[in-house]
Design a protein that fits this description.
binds iron/sulfur cluster, 2 domains, three-stranded antiparallel beta sheet, TIM Barrel, 390 residues, Arc Repressor Mutant, subunit A, nine-stranded mixed beta sheet
C-alpha cells in the first residue's frame, strides 16, 4: 500500500504543439492534432488506473504542462479535471495551473477554463521583440501577449505567470531591458526567466554549432540575469528560486513541490513522477501511449501504469542528495536544517559536511543555524555546486 502524504501534486503532460520552436527539446509533436481526443480518453484512463490502487490520495496542486495544453478544448480539460476530482481527494483551494500559448488565449476560452477549475495560467511570452520571437519560430508576436493578458484579466484570472528567455543570439542588454519593461507593464503575479539552452537535436543548437548564429558571451548573459533581478526587486517581485520571482505569497506551489523533493504523480507521455520512493518516466510516443492505455491491463501497482517505461527505487542517500540539490535552488529558504533533521534524522553537516564547508569557505554557500542557502555568487555557479552533491 502506498505511503500517502498530506500534500501530493499531479503533473499532466500534453504532448502536442502546432509548430516546433527552434530551441525546444521537450517531448512534443506537431501535426498530431487528430490524436487529441483519443489522448484525452487515454489520459483519463491513466488517472483512473493510478487512482484504483491509491484511493484517497490527497492532491494540492495540478499542473497541465507540455507541449501546448491550450490546444485542448475547455471540454477536454474539464473531463480530465472532473476525473481527477472523482478519483482523488483534491484540496478545495488547490492550485490548478495550465501552460498556454498566447495565441490560444481568448476571453471565452479563459472563462470556460476557469469554470472548469483552472486558476493559474502560465503564458510562454519568451520575448517582447518580434525579431527574437521569429528566430524562436513562435506562433505569437509581441502584440498577442498583450491581448492574451488582457483577455485573461477580463475573464477574472488572478494568478498569471509569464516566461522570458535571455541570452538569445544578437540580443543586447538594451533588447533585454525592453522585454523586461513590457513584461512588467503587464504586471504578472509570477515571472520565470531562463537562459537560452542549446539542446541536442534543436534547430537553434545546429545554427549555433555551425556558426550561423552567435550567442551572447557569458559576461553579458550574467549581466542580463543580474539586471533582471535588480529590476524585478524595484517592482515588488522577490526571487524565490534561481529562475523564478513572484509578488508576495504568489510562488508556484506546484513547482515548490519539486524543489522540496516531495511526491508527485506524472501522467501522460514523457512525464516523470516521484511517488512512494520510486522515480519513474512514461513512454514518449503519444501513439504508443494511447494504445497501451486503451488496450492493455491497467491493474499494475501504484504508481506504475502501463504507460510507465522505466522506474527505479530511491535509497536514502540518493534522497538526501536530491533534497539538497533541489532545495538549494530555493534562493530565500534554501535547506531548512530543522525540516532536514525531521525528514532524515540527521543534520546536513552529518551528510555532506566536507562539501558544504568547502563551498562556505569559497563564498558560494551560506550556512547558519537555521538554513543552508546559495550565496548571490553561488547562484551563478549552481550547476557546478549541485554536481558535487551527487
Ligand atoms: S510551444 Fe513550447 S513545447 Fe511547443 S515547441 Fe514551442 S517551446 Fe516546445
Amino acid at each position: 500500500m502506498p505511503v500517502l502524504t498530506a500534500s501530493n501534486s499531479l503533473y499532466l503532460h500534453i504532448p502536442f504543439c502546432t509548430v516546433r520552436c527552434t530551441y525546444c527539446a521537450f517531448n512534443t509533436y506537431i501535426n498530431l492534432e487528430s490524436l487529441i481526443e483519443p489522448f484525452t480518453n487515454a489520459l483519463i484512463r491513466e488517472i483512473e488506473c493510478v487512482a484504483r490502487s491509491s484511493s484517497g490520495l490527497k492532491l494540492h496542486t495540478i499542473y497541465f504542462g507540455g507541449g501546448t495544453p491550450s490546444l485542448l478544448s475547455h471540454i477536454q480539460i474539464g473531463r480530465i479535471l472532473s476525473t481527477v476530482r472523482r478519483e482523488f481527494d483534491l484540496a478545495a483551494d488547490a492550485e490548478i495551473s495550465m501552460e498556454a500559448n498566447p495565441d490560444d488565449i481568448h476571453l471565452d476560452y479563459v472563462h470556460a477554463l476557469m469554470e472548469q477549475g483552472i486558476n493559474r495560467l502560465s503564458l510562454g511570452m519568451q520575448s517582447a521583440n518580434n525579431r527574437e520571437l521569429q528566430l524562436f519560430g513562435r506562433r505569437h508576436d509581441a502584440d498577442t501577449i498583450h491581448r492574451a493578458v488582457a483577455a485573461s484579466r477580463r475573464a477574472g484570472l488572478k494568478n498569471l505567470n509569464l516566461d522570458l528567455i535571455f541570452g538569445i543570439p544578437h540580443q543586447t542588454l538594451n533588447d533585454w531591458e525592453v522585454s523586461l519593461d513590457q513584461l512588467l507593464w503587464l504586471h504578472p503575479e509570477h515571472i520565470s526567466v531562463y537562459a537560452l539552452g542549446l539542446e541536442d537535436g534543436t534547430a537553434m543548437n545546429s545554427w549555433v554549432q555551425k556558426g550561423k548564429l552567435p550567442l551572447p558571451d557569458d559576461d553579458l548573459t550574467a549581466d542580463m540575469y543580474e539586471f533582471a533581478d535588480e529590476y524585478f526587486n524595484t517592482q515588488g517581485y522577490q526571487q524565490y528560486e534561481i529562475s523564478n520571482w513572484s509578488l508576495p505569497s504568489r510562488e508556484c506551489k506546484h513547482n515548490k513541490q519539486y524543489w522540496l523533493n516531495l511526491p508527485y504523480l506524472g501522467l501522460g507521455p514523457g512525464a516523470h513522477g516521484y511517488m512512494d520512493r520510486l522515480r519513474y518516466e512514461t513512454i514518449l510516443s503519444p501513439h504508443r501511449y494511447i494504445n497501451l492505455l486503451i488496450n492493455s491491463d491497467t491493474s499494475r501497482a501504484f504508481p506504475l501504469t502501463p504507460a510507465v517505461n522505466d522506474w527505479h527505487e530511491i535509497d536514502t542517500d540518493t534522497e538526501i542528495a536530491e533534497t539538497l540539490l533541489m532545495g538549494l535552488r530555493l534562493t530565500q529558504t534554501g535547506i531548512s536544517r530543522f525540516d532536514f533533521v525531521q525528514r532524515f534524522g540527521k543534520d546536513v553537516m552529518e551528510c555532506h559536511g566536507s562539501t558544504i564547508e568547502k563551498f562556505v569557505e569559497s563564498g558560494l554557500l551560506i550556512l547558519d543555524d537555521k538554513k543552508l542557502i546559495l550565496s548571490p555568487k553561488g547562484r551563478f555557479l549552481s550547476n557546478m555546486i549541485f554536481r558535487e552533491f551527487v
